[in-house]
Specification:
Belongs to the FemABX family. The chain has 365 residues and is an alpha+beta fold. The chain folds into two domains: 6-112 and 124-149 and 325-363, Gcn5-related N-acetyltransferase (GNAT) (Aminopeptidase, 3-Layer(aba) Sandwich); 154-322, Aminopeptidase (3-Layer(aba) Sandwich). The protein starts with 5 loop residues before the first helix and ends with a helix. It contains eleven helices and 16 strands.
Length: 365
């Protein structure tokens, strides 16, 4: 089907996600992926499920010619409690992967297995998520060693007044927010013209915090696509008129996402990220969002986890941990899948090193 009305079809489905939208499909189409939107309807014509399937041909030399992989980011979207539709959708996806000759099909739907940090008094487990994991195993799906998106995340509930939000925050977070405001940190809306500056800050952030990013062209394409669609906003934190931090706020179907955040080393003592997130919460609420997804939490909730520091920051804002089933692979060609997964770690490490070198080159480090 065409993508023209795609976003409208998603609005009534559970867990409609920004990574399942038409705009994301158009971005990925510019970077080697072919989108295949798939819809399942009941006899009355009502949409019961949908999946934006992305397909990519491998370009790793002559020995990969004709090989492809498939991915449904944060999907498929459906009521996972409905076993009839669940079976129909997953069976169809398996058939599509086999018919297309894919090595594997990856899915990472937002099926919740629990809330809160495991083994704490506030933790709640969800039997549906555990049941779906067991069901996938029975169908010979494998929990993926390649988790493209974050398996766990943190949600902020935007219900209530701003005073309610403050009450849900940790005391230290409220203190830092007020401290930043007293020290003159201000937040304003940015525009498409600010995107090159945002990328430079993002590159600086990646080198400081030790994570790999893509090229400037990729991020400018993503950010501009969603800004032009009215599905994102730029927020910039300033000190004495100088930009020191920023974020891109995405919103769709009653939810907002903090997918990209960036900051400079300058004026970090003034805590610019606190008023920046406060304004993001206000903007998300103004756009009709009930949930603000802070995008990312540790796989293991221990201080040694590389995300522990940023997680504590998100938790301080009053967020709740949401744990999901993560990414699962259907090996449509099992022998090739095993070979691919043996080669993948070395390939990813090479790509990370190359990406960091390119980032340093772009920012002149």
């Amino acid at each position: 089907m065409e993508l023209d009305q795609w976003n409208d079809l998603l609005l009534d489905l559970p867990a409609a996600h920004i990574l399942q939208t038409r705009q994301w499909a158009e971005v990925k189409a510019n970077y080697g992926w072919t989108p295949y939107p798939k819809v399942w309807r009941d006899e009355a014509g009502k949409v019961q499920a949908a999946a934006l399937i992305l397909e990519r041909s491998l370009r790793l030399g002559w020995f990969t010619a004709g090989l492809r992989v498939m991915y449904v980011p944060r999907g498929p979207l459906m009521d996972w409690k409905d076993e009839l539709w669940r079976t129909r959708v997953i069976s169809d996806l398996e058939k599509i992967a086999r018919r297309r000759g894919a090595i594997f099909l990856k899915i990472d739907p937002e099926v919740v297995i629990g809330k809160g940090i495991p083994q704490t008094e506030d933790a709640l487990e969800d039997s549906l998520g555990r049941g779906v994991m067991n069901w996938l195993r029975q169908r010979r799906w494998r929990f993926s060693t390649e988790q493209i998106q974050f398996r766990n995340t943190v949600w902020l509930d935007l219900a209530g007044s701003e005073e309610d939000w403050l009450a849900r925050m940790k005391q230290k977070t409220r203190y830092n927010l007020r401290l930043a405001q007293r020290k003159g940190v201000t937040v304003r809306l940015g525009s498409i013209q600010d995107l090159p500056l945002l990328y430079r800050m993002y590159a600086e952030t990646s080198l400081r915090d030790g994570f790999t990013i893509r090229s400037e062209a990729y991020y400018l394409t993503v950010w501009q696509k969603f800004l032009e669609a009215g599905m994102a906003e730029v927020l910039l934190a300033e000190v004495e008129g100088e930009v020191v931090a920023g974020l891109i706020l995405f919103f769709f179907a009653g939810r907002a996402w903090y997918l990209y955040g960036m900051s400079r080393n300058l004026h970090r003592d003034k805590m610019p990220n606190y008023p920046l997130q406060w304004e993001a919460m206000r903007r998300a609420k103004a756009h009709g969002c009930q949930i603000y997804d802070l995008w990312g939490a540790p796989d293991e909730f221990i201080e040694q986890d590389r995300m522990w520091g940023v997680f504590r920051f998100k938790q301080g804002l009053g967020g709740e941990v949401i744990r999901t089933i993560g990414a699962w692979d259907y090996p449509a060609r099992p022998l090739l899948y095993v070979l691919y997964m043996q080669i993948l770690p070395r390939l990813l490490e090479w790509m990370r090193q190359r990406g960091q070198q390119q980032t340093r080159k772009e920012v002149g480090v």
